Amino acid sequence: MHDGQLLALMKCLAPEQVEQIGRHAQVLTGIDNMQPVGRRALAGRLRLPEREVRTIAANLKDQGLLTLDAAGMQLTPKADQVLPGARDLTRSLFGLHDLEDRLSKALNIPYVLVVAGDAEKDVQVLREVGRACAHRLRSLLSGQKTVAIAGGSTMMETARGMQFASLPEVTVVPARGGMGNSIETQANTIASELARRLGGRCKAIHVPDSLDASALGEMLRLPEVKEAMELLEKADVVVHGIALADDMALRRSLPPSIVQRIRENGAVGETFGDFFDRSGHTVYRMNTVGTGLGHNEKSHLIAAAAGARKAPAIIAALRRERHDSLITDESAAQEILSLL
Amino acid sequence: MHDGQLLALMKCLAPEQVEQIGRHAQVLTGIDNMQPVGRRALAGRLRLPEREVRTIAANLKDQGLLTLDAAGMQLTPKADQVLPGARDLTRSLFGLHDLEDRLSKALNIPYVLVVAGDAEKDVQVLREVGRACAHRLRSLLSGQKTVAIAGGSTMMETARGMQFASLPEVTVVPARGGMGNSIETQANTIASELARRLGGRCKAIHVPDSLDASALGEMLRLPEVKEAMELLEKADVVVHGIALADDMALRRSLPPSIVQRIRENGAVGETFGDFFDRSGHTVYRMNTVGTGLGHNEKSHLIAAAAGARKAPAIIAALRRERHDSLITDESAAQEILSLL
DNA sequence: TTTAGCGGGTCAAATTTGGCCCAGCGGGGC
DNA sequence: GCCCCGCTGGGCCAAATTTGACCCGCTAAA
Question: Which of A12, A18, A83 has the most B C-beta neighbours within 10 Å, making it the best mutation to test the interface with B?
Fold first, then answer.
């Protein structure tokens, strides 16, 4: 019997109890996310009554899954073994697996993961998306691989959500659409953080912000810069977020004329410095200097983006280029499905 | 993720709730076994407090799985869809799947099914074994098959437990070790009942009891009898119970000298009129006239026997001949494992 | 030393449980 | 065909348990 069938069966027999089990799993994962944590903080985040958290925590303690001390609740090593299963279970019970399947079919993406909640209402959700993205990335990494990771808050959470490992053969490169502004500097930071956690190398390119075009052209001819660019082009895995065109136009402080042009052309999203419209066509390319998308055809493309507002941008980004994996949140997932 | 893993995970997270779900499944299957049935009768059989049955019944009613009226509780068509799953779930949660796996390995039998309970303490268990045996038999039947079924109370329950079907191409033959006594007459009855339920043909051989040897020899030369014997020999599936040697020696009212001989030779069990010892070697063959075991090498052999007392006989019978399936009850299963 | 956050205790309110009875109905015996 | 008995679901209420909403003493970090 398949998993989903078993869960459906049990839901049919005793929905109350299944939900209760789900809440247990939720509490367990919640503790893992914030440990050490107290009942009240946790109850607030999970939107559960304090008393229920207390009862569940007592149960889990009986099972030897957590310890209660003055610092708060913390998971035991035993809990770490059940944790992946518990995460999966919560996703199943929240109906997220169903969302994932539908998205996977509708968007033609092999791997889709949906995190419960709404990133716009709960910052914790973005962390969860980052963690899930990190997990997916980790599962694609083995031996001598090159990872390119872009910038943005989602990618920051991805780097921070990566578990520590020892993969000295792995090289991390900032997947930058161009060079010479603060956004790309941030990509450097993220890449080095990711490399640190993976125990691998990082080929970050440190360039002062706001150089003029000719100075950038000079830099591109430097051997180490060229090396990094080549690495970027043959990256095995490329991970990136998806930005809203409007937000990004403002944040990158583009000249008003450009902003207007972007808007008039119906841009909805931005990746790697490229603004694109609903159908995924490039409307404006921010970086005249750089490698463009920065990946080849054989590489795994992982996109991570959360929040219902980003739904149109996500759809467009996925139309633009065939992706291997999508990590998003519940609200975005539902919005995407309603837009299609 | 595999089923057992999911259940183990949930047990680890919230054992109480999992048990509760198990009880729900138990009540559902219990109702199916005895419907229409009242709370108290059911509570008595399942050894649960009446109130709990009441609560669970209310839950199941909320799920639209059963109706409550003056006649008692009855399942709805919707419940029939979940019923097989519920049966399997109860077996999983009672740890019977574990028993099955261990028996399967220890005895080298591909299909093992263990029914909860003890047939010696609860007659209902034998019915359940019969039902399970019928289910297994049914799963092996398709198109033009010949089934041989032996006698005994377990086989009677197997025939009675078979769901009605329409398999006109199926032929049922009584799997008899010999001819000419009441036991074989019973095999006829069972075979015809089974054939009736399967919607197939029955090739029963009606011979008066207690003919002498020469008269039997004559009968064996009759064309219709020969035909039945040939069918028996090429049966695709053979289903049989396993009797205790002592019981059977008494019940068949053998002469005291034979009974003593059987005992002295350490007979533990009997099938098809053959008495055998612990190692499965034939100690005494009751029927000098007949087809012996009555099956060929290619046929599926299904054995069904319940009750801890039968454990040694079951072990010996399985040593005696390679079986395809074993259906037994919990007490016998545990006794078998403790004896090995 | 202060302070914020922790687990645990407490206790009334709400809910569930346990055990019993009741009126009604349906099937088996006559 | 009819009646009667046994079993049915549902009602009921006290007992037990769980829930909810606090407070308290402690500890670890600031």
Answer: A12
